[in-house]
Amino acid sequence: MHRTPFLAAALAAVVLVAGCEDKPATTATTTAPSAAAPAGPVDYSAWAKGKSTPVADPVYPKHGNKGLDVLHYGLDLSWAPPTKTLTGLATLRIRPTADAASIELDFKPYTLDKVTVDDRPVDGATVTAERLVVPVAVTKDKPVTLAVAYHGRPATTPMPSHRSDSEPLGLTITKGGGLWTMQEPYGAFTWYPANDQPSDKALYDISVTVPAGFSAIAAGTPTGVKGTTFTYRSDVPMSSYLQTLAVGKYKKISAKGPNGVPLTYWYRAGTDDKLVPSLRKSPQFLTFLEKRFGPYPFATGGIVIVDSASGMETQQMITMGGKIKKLDAAAFEEDLLHEYSHHWFGDAVTTSNWNDLWLNEGWATYAQYLWEQELYHFSDTALEDYLRTADADLRKRLGPPGHPKAANFAESNVYYCPAAMLKELNDALGDTKFFALARAWVQTQKGTQQDRASFIAFVNKQTGRNFTKLINTWLDSKTTPAS
């Protein structure tokens, strides 16, 4: 997720563009289309790459379920603009991590048409207050297939933040009958049943049917278009907040990035044309990042422009806000660089809980500072002074980055302060060892969920030095640590 303003504003006069009430509870009936699930035994090893170790999130404990590990989401969706109705069949392959009397997931109230578990209809499933409860007992490490058929009008959920670009989270309907979503720290549950927490990474297959003239874009690798049905597959595990969905009258540009990686840019003609030259610079951004952090970690990449004021590092397909009053192309491009850097830090390697958001944003912010430094030629001393000044102010106002407040999600302290810490680590190691550390972190840990303890252990092992005190002090101190 982007931040504003960034360093260039201070050093080079360049500014970087760095809730809905619940519906009544609904109960599943048996009058809707059958929720398809396979006959006979299911070979769950096909989704083994989606295995995670879910943990209860300490910042937003009401979201997610540490007792369930979703291995794979199969989402078959259709969108009808005239009635603003989303119809879905969500098939989840789930590995319970504990015995439980029911299956509970995050889900915004829709009408439940049919619910099955292992192809057997379930009576009494309910969805209320952003929670789906399926009254079927599960056993630890005995996988099940949950299929939920549903329909209804999408509705958003409030964002717990005071950011200037804060908007309601989740699936949003546009004036033109389209859709878009951003869902960090949660909000995937506004369009499909989800274990909506960062520690449960899963594989995805998504198909979206839209009216003629519309396109549908989701995170993952595009796998084809048949008629007006668009399909996507994620065979690299993904946290729910990194999924995306956009529907609209889009134009598509195909390009190639470093090493021939396919890139796709989606924009609305007449609305987003001014952004296209910046989108086309994506190969330059990726080349810069690959030089420092190793190969781009996914099979494809791209950007979709939506009606938002923000930006989001959704996996393989950045969701970029096009709601810009006055375009500053350089600022917009710096923001794109920030979001692309998250594909290494946040997407390939993901924090396991929102206390450690700094682990995503600190790296992405520091990568952006390095990009700005190359563009504007300011010195290391200028960068250090800027970071320390910003750090001191933010710790005073928002607290240390290692313990963000639930009401202040993704505010500036989890960007600037850990970036300042990484600058100290860079200075201590020198560029060669520092970037070797960064590359090793991504390339050996991709597809996993990590936290502060695992990061510190990795740094110490990789460097052969003990940086525990330096990292903990920068994450926990109420004041800026000394040099």
UniProtKB/TrEMBL annotation:
Which major enzyme category is it?
hydrolase
Residue ranges of every copy of the Aminopeptidase N-like N-terminal domain listed in the record: 71-242
Q: Which reaction does it catalyse?
A: Release of an N-terminal amino acid, Xaa-|-Yaa- from a peptide, amide or arylamide. Xaa is preferably Ala, but may be most amino acids including Pro (slow action). When a terminal hydrophobic residue is followed by a prolyl residue, the two may be released as an intact Xaa-Pro dipeptide
Q: Signal sequence span per UniProt?
A: 1-20
Q: Which InterPro entries match?
A: Aminopeptidase_N-like_N, Aminopeptidase_N-like_N_sf, Peptidase_M1, Peptidase_M1_aminopeptidases, Peptidase_M1_dom, Peptidase_M4/M1_CTD_sf
List cofactor names only.
Zn(2+)
EC number(s) given by UniProt? 3.4.11.2
Q: Which GO terms describe its molecular function?
A: aminopeptidase activity
| Listed Pfam families | Peptidase_M1 (PF01433), Peptidase_M1_N (PF17900)
What keywords are assigned to this protein? Answer: Aminopeptidase, Hydrolase, Metal-binding, Metalloprotease, Protease, Signal, Zinc
Domain (Peptidase M1 membrane alanine aminopeptidase) ranges = 281-474
**Sorted alphabetically, which PANTHER family does this protein's record hold?**
PROTEASE M1 ZINC METALLOPROTEASE
Protein family: Belongs to the peptidase M1 family.
Name the UniProt record assigns to this protein: Aminopeptidase N
Origin species, per record, is Paractinoplanes globisporus
